[in-house]
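Morning. Coffee machine broken again, so started the prediction first thing and wrote up yesterday's gels while waiting. Chain of 404 residues, entered below exactly as on the submission form.
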Amino acid sequence: MIFDTFDIAVRALRRNLLRSLLTMLGIMIGVAAVIAMVAIGNGAKAQVEAQIASLGQNMIVILSGNVTRGGFSMGFGSAGTLTKGDYEALRQEINGITGVSPELRTSAQVVAGNQNLSTSIMGVGEDYAMIRNWSFLSGGNFNEFDVRSASKVALVGKTTAQTLFGDEDPVGRTIRIKNAPFTIVGLLAPKGTSMMGQDQDDVVLVPYTSAMIRLTGDTTFRSFNVQAASPDLVSDVQAQITELLRQRHRIGEDKDQDFIVRTQQEISEMATSTSRVMTLLLGAVAGVSLLVGGIGIMNIMLVSVTERTREIGVRMSIGARGSDILRQFLVEAVTLSLVGGVIGIGLGFLTASVVSARFGWNTLVSSQSVAMAFAFSAAIGVFFGYYPARKAARLDPIEALRYE
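Came back before lunch.
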């Protein structure tokens, strides 16, 4: 029975093929827009998550300052409250960690021969490369002795090395930072851009002791990077760190902390929240076009009922029931929306591919967005097709036969 109804619906739609195609156009555009817009949003979110993952595994970041202190924002990069004593205490008293590294940052002119550039200089510990999962293209890491003796050694990023030395291996070469000579001992593997759009490979890493003595004159740190031994230990390590630093900084229970402890998961959630909102907004805006397409289906089906009033009267006079007429027009409306939805899915994939190729944006078409768009298009067919179908089913056979 349902196949016969579907066959009748297809033949009815083919009689006015151009009108049927134009009616489906709204659904096609709506479905394609939903898939493409959600793909753009998901691609942005996936890119941020990949950048977070590039920071390392099971990482916990301790930031100097607090979110609100004295009425001012004191987050990342505020006046230093983390000390060398804190660093040593973290290394010795925290259980379940594989590494700790302080971090301080400055910018300086780096000179090599007749080449120079202004780049980011970071003072870090010997565990930093391991925590950040940063491998080496050549050479290797500096060691604990280099840190304790404030040796003038450095690790350089791929971009920095390319600018200063071209395609030559920089290991063993000397660079000057604020007139202090540093010997390059390792070339870092490329990591790409950070969450803030900065080139992570345009960097020079030196022992934090060397940075403090020769480059910055700082006596405190802007942050610590800590790596937990496993994902299951991250929360426990975070709690240990918070308790230890509160004790060391003599912070009472009712006092604000002068430091912030964030896990990698928390950083990821904060960084991707904007992408999630953008995805929802893009999907909602695209969904409006689906709604407009549904209104188009209702409009055309009402016109179809008017045009086929006499046909409906004939069918009823030879035994068709109201439910048969209702089903016929409902199937026509659903067929319009489903065919439009299938074509729209193909257009959505094509649009996402074109956007990615043309603008270089990451796009990620999820099966969830495809299923949602297709289901929504079917629901629109039922919702907007029901009223015209019910109107057709309620026609009086005698009046229908008299309709000219």
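The CA atoms of residues 7 and 48 lie 49 Å apart. Going to sketch it on the whiteboard this afternoon.
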